[in-house]
Amino acid sequence: MANFHKHKDNISLDDMTLVRYCQNGDSEAMSCLIVKYQDRVYNTIYKICQNRDDAAELTQDTFVKVLENINTFRRESSFYTWLFRVAVNLTLNYCKRRLKLSPVSLDAENERLENDKGKLAAMLADPSGQDPARIAQQREVVQIIVNTIGQLARDYRVVLVLRDIEQMSYAQIAEVLCIEVGTVKSRLSRARTMLRELLETVLT
Amino acid sequence: MTEKSKIEIEELLNALVEDQATERQKNEFARLIRHDPSVADQLAAMQRQKQILGALPVESAPASLANDVCSALEHKKIVGVSSGTEPTVVGVSHLFMRRLLTTAAMLLLPIGVLSFVIFEIIKPASSGPVGYPPVGDGFVQNDSSDSTESMAPIVVKELPFDGILTFRTDQPITVRNYAEKMIFDQGLISHTVPKRTVDIVTYQITAPPDTVAVLIDSLEGVWLHCQQVVLSVADDTQGSRVDIPNVQIEQVKTLTEEDNPEMLNRLAGQYALANIKKDSMFARDDMSMDTEINFADFPPLTIPILTGRNELPLKTIDPSQPAVRLRIRIERSTE
Q: Which residue of A1, B48, B71, B210 has the lowest C-beta tally within 10 Å?
């Protein structure tokens, strides 16, 4: 096998090559894999769990677990879906534990959601901000949308985040969640409708 | 709008948002907006929502993440922590086995103790030292209704003497207590297996001949308080027995110490004959059948006091010595 250090642009190496280096104990290849995916993994976890500190910890746990078990990776699926499967599983487990530890007050959440919807409507009323891409860059809007996504049930939230934010294909989502593609479609359809209903006043 | 049609519209809009709608779905959508123009607004809202979500900025992971991950990996490698803290299949099965064994041990231990206690309670009484035949009357059952006549010593081949010394008395309790004390004093308590019924007490003693002879000597006083003393000796050669009526102490001692089976049988026969004829030099001559016996003239049996006296040290008996078996039988006289 070629020496990893001979490659000047290591980050451009494909996942399988990096994985091979990692399996041989190359720590620089491990760093490359982490740098390559850390933001996407963190972003996905944050959108699901809604907490930056927990997302940072879960991202670290994800990479530690993946690199610890890198030798068990059989290359039957892509490294990307394997990585996200670990990340999503850890995050969902965390969400279940958190739900048990701190039950959320529905009244408080509904009140917060109403406030968010009002703010978002006011922002969207500004003619200068009608471009969705520009709207999405506003910090407050981002926070409101993330909060609203957090109102969805876990199964729907995960599918929505993986598809509309992480831009995964149906097949990749099915592989990550170990469910059928048809289930992915129906859950996504339901998740989008639920989110639209939650943000109805500002999106229509 | 039914729930089913609502779901169908959701999926139709979803296919259009994903730009994966078939021609049939596109026609269906066109038909829908003709009937309900608000469906077009729904589609627009979903498309806008998808665009906003897709345009959300990617949150950046903490800058130290890569270093933190590497540090955590190195720490685990140094500490030797196994991969992950999730329970493995092997670990779970191992834990299950340990719990199973612990539970089994917790159940079996008290059951074992309880079984031992129950066994100790219900087990059959000891039949005496190892090698001793079980205590019984020691008689072979025959058709005779007379218990004395039915007595037949169990022949034990390795023993030169095997006999039953029967005391028939009207003072069975006194005689029994005295005999027991003598057995104890001679250190034969661990070589004696008693058997008690309402009317009859039998002590089966298996000991060296000289020890048995001493015991017989110590029972001298018993003779005077008995209406009849009979010794039944097993005839090993013929598989029968010889009954010696009115047997004397010396006769018993002689027979117990005899180590030749033939001589033993011959002597037993002679004693029996002589005692019956009452003309033998060994026959008892102090009691004529015509003479009325006054038992009040005899000195009373002195029952040893168990407390307040110096106990004799227990005699040790060499187990390697040849032993004889004597059964002392005390029964109430029917005369």
A: A1
- Per-residue pLDDT tens digits for A163-173: 999 999 999 99
Residue contact B45–A55, C-beta within 8 A? no
Using the Cβ of B285 and the Cβ atoms of chain A, whether some distance falls under 8 Å is answered with no
Residue A134 domain boundaries? 107-203
* Contacting residues of A for B37, CB less than 8 Å apart: none
Paired with B202 in beta bridges are B195, B329
Count of residues in chain B: 335
Are A158 and A91 found together in one domain? no
Q: What is the pTM of this model?
A: 0.50
d(CA A190, CA B10): 7
A143 and A85 within one domain:
no
**Which residue in the set A35, A42, A145 is minimally distant from B56, CB to CB?**
A145
Tell which phi-psi region holds residue A73, choosing left (phi > 0), alpha (psi between -120 and 50) or beta. Answer: beta
Which one of B11, B18, B47, B52 would you mutate to disrupt binding with A, by most A Cβ within 10 Å of its Cβ?
Answer: B52
Cβ of residue B42 closer than 8 Å to a chain A Cβ: yes
ipTM for this prediction: 0.80
**What are the chain A neighbours of B60 within 8 Å (beta carbons)?**
39, 42
Confidence of residue A119 (pLDDT cuts 50, 70, 90): low
Would you tell me which residues 76-115 of chain B have a C-beta closer than 8 angstroms to some C-beta of chain A? 76, 83-84
Interface check for B48 against chain A (CB to CB < 8 A): the answer is: yes
Q: A129 lies in a domain?
A: yes
Q: Please answer yes or no on whether A56 and B59 come within 8 Å at the CB atom.
A: no
Where b means 16+ CB within 10 Å and e means fewer, B273-297 reads ebbeeeebebbeeeeeeeeeeeeee
More confident of the two residues B269 and B126: B269
| A-chain residues near B61 (CB < 8 A) | 38-39, 41-43, 56, 59
Identify the bridge partners of residue B242 per DSSP, sorted by sequence position: B233
Q: For residue range B88-140, what is the model confidence (pLDDT) as tens digits?
A: 566 778 888 889 999 999 999 999 999 999 988 887 665 444 444 444 444 44
State the DSSP H helix or E strand holding residue B140, giving kind and residue range, or none if neither: none
Answer yes or no: do B56 and A40 touch at CB < 8 A: no
> Is A138 within the bounds of a domain?
yes
Angle between helices A139-149 and A27-49 (to 10 degrees): 80
Answer yes or no: do B48 and A132 touch at CB < 8 A.
yes
From A98, A132, A157, the end of a domain falls on: A98
* Local structure of A198: helix, strand or coil: helix
Is the CA virtual torsion A32, A90, A81, B58 positive or negative? negative
